[in-house]
What we know:
Elements: H1 2-30, H2 39-42, E1 47-53, H3 61-69, H4 82-94, E2 98-99, H5 102-110, E3 118-126, H6 129-142, E4 146-150, E5 158-159, E6 162-163, H7 167-177, E7 181-185, E8 193-194, E9 197-198, H8 206-224, E10 230-232, H9 240-247, E11 254-256, E12 275-276, H10 282-290
Parallel strand pairs: 1-3, 1-12, 2-3, 3-4, 4-7, 10-11
Antiparallel strand pairs: 5-6, 8-9
Helix pairs in contact: 4-6
Pfam families: Polysacc_deac_1
Domain NodB homology: 118-293
Protein name: Polysaccharide deacetylase
Amino acid sequence: MRKWILGIIIVVFLGLIAINVKKNIKFELGNRENYALAAKDQKIKNGIMVLCYHRILNDNLAVKTVQAVSPNNQLHAYNVNLSDFKVQMNDLERQHIKVISTSEMVKMLKSNQPVRGKYVVLTFDDVDRTFAENAAPVMKQHHYPYTASIITGTTGEYIGGEQLATWPQILKLRKSAGNLLELGVHTNNMHYLIHGTPAFNLRKNYTRFKADFATSQKVMLAKTGKVSPIFTYPYGSGTPQVENFLMAQPSLNVIYTLNNGIVTSAQNLSLTPRMIVNTDSWPSINRWLATKA
């Protein structure tokens, strides 16, 4: 009898914990940032939408279980499960969306000709193992060009809940992908927060950031044979001081942000908007893509 009573108490206790966890997750997810395309941008008929991905996790039981019990942004806001990613890439093909590279976007916009129709640029931040193992094969199958921005000084490390790809993995992928893959820099070793503020945005770290940028390009040159014309902001944006520094760099053609929006002219390239892709934002993204120009 005592064992039965103890068992009932344990079951009730675990049930209460599960209910509390579910409520907390619902609260956390309900209060996170809205990543959907703004209503005003839905009205833009012609333009280039730059999609931003971080992690592409396998749809295995372990991942689904952790997603069910954790509101961690790395599992929700910054992740697209592999099955959903495949559907999204199929949607682009089915709707005959023109997927272009970052370089093609730059060339198109700098020609001073108006953008006619709808285009997509695929970008991936951080370059973790799920990008190399899960996303890249799907894009190769569709023959889609894409840009991957590397934290050049922390490749192969485990940071922020993700296992970053090593340089050998990146170079192997680059060889396999050929002209489909372009590499951007995502700082060398300043992709972290200090009391909630991106390290490179602190005024006291400005000199460090300039040196870090130079180092990231030196690493890129040593590893790939050339510097990158693409810089991608960690955490999405920089201070006016940082912006002015980056805009003055002759090697850079594009500075990617996480500002929500559509690219419509060459003026966008210094603060290029991108759409973070997740389960919340994709419906609005797909709606814009499906609307005829």
